[in-house]
Amino acid sequence: MVTKSESRTPLTVGTPTVKRGAHQPVRLLNRILQRPELASLGGLLVTFVCFTVLVPDLFLSHANGVNMTGLAAQYGIVAIGVTILMIGGHFDLSVGTIVGLTGWAMYFFGNELGLPPILTIVCALAFGAALGAVNGIIQVTTGLPSFIVTLATALVFRGVLTMQTSGFPVVVRFPETYANVLAGPKLFGYRMSLLWFLVLAVLATVFLLRTKVGNWTFAIGQNGNSARNLGVPVARTTIGLFTISGFTAAVAGVIMAVQYFSIDANRGVGWELITIAVAVIGGTLLTGGYGSVLGTVLGAFMYAMVSAGLLLVGLQGYWVNIFVGVVVLAAVLFNRFILKRFVMTPERPTVDPEPKEEGAR
Length: 361
Known about the structure:
Layout: H1 24-33, H2 38-54, H3 56-59, H4 62-87, H5 95-112, H6 117-142, H7 146-165, E1 170-171, H8 176-183, H9 192-210, H10 212-222, H11 224-229, H12 234-260, E2 262-263, H13 271-281, H14 293-312, H15 318-342
Antiparallel strand pairs: 1-2
Helix pairs in contact: 2-14, 4-9, 4-10, 4-12, 4-13, 4-14, 5-6, 5-7, 5-12, 6-7, 6-12, 8-9, 8-12, 9-10, 10-12, 13-14, 13-15, 14-15
């Protein structure tokens, strides 16, 4: 049985341990340095201080706060699913397209079929989760790298979206009352999408740190073969992780569809790279088995803060991409240094195996 630590920074499989014999202050420092959120928290604080000094009136304004939190929520919701999947050792390059296709599903179920608003939302979310499950089934069945599988499905999904919209914006008619609950400025002037982002982050954290499947996720990300040998249902869990990724993308798609009351063929373009960048800034390793939803939340706010702050100081939008690229590289190097310097080689993996049925040998 694996001890589920509060942070899950020491992973469930091959739990890294601090060097024995270290003094208490050293052990405490090592535990702090092992947290995947460290780099994103430091970067967020530095970014906040810099823009507060450069443009205090504009950056600290309520309007800019609404803009930043709305942007962080949009990308962050999708990045939560991407983070969970990356911890499990896989990528999903189709999340941006699922965001767009889910918006079209809102139009189809609500405007074409005339379903009630609640049922429309449920069907759209189920549709997005199903697209994620398709990715997982293909990956598990073929054994191809998830990068290739989701790249292919992203092209297919984008083609379907373009075909359904004919390349033009499509108006989504949805009751304003429900739209305000999903994405309206009803949270002390901030958009409700911020609330759903934080709720999803809490649920995802509980899933990773307090459930057996969360334990399996870290196990698969560290070493899928070892996890399988120890009784972890790797194929079933992997499909479930892809489904979660599709679901969170669908949540963002639903929110954006009712926020703007429209969809188009370019909805979600480039989101797959942005959400991976947000996850990496938050401390999630590209190699899997290590990461934190809290770090992703901080990474999403940092990305939104940089996007808004650079525009407020008068720089062009392309500086956002340049800055984020540098930050992603720095985050990867920082996390690799921390793992090599302060974390020992993992011991023999121990996981909670899937319970066998009574009478099974």
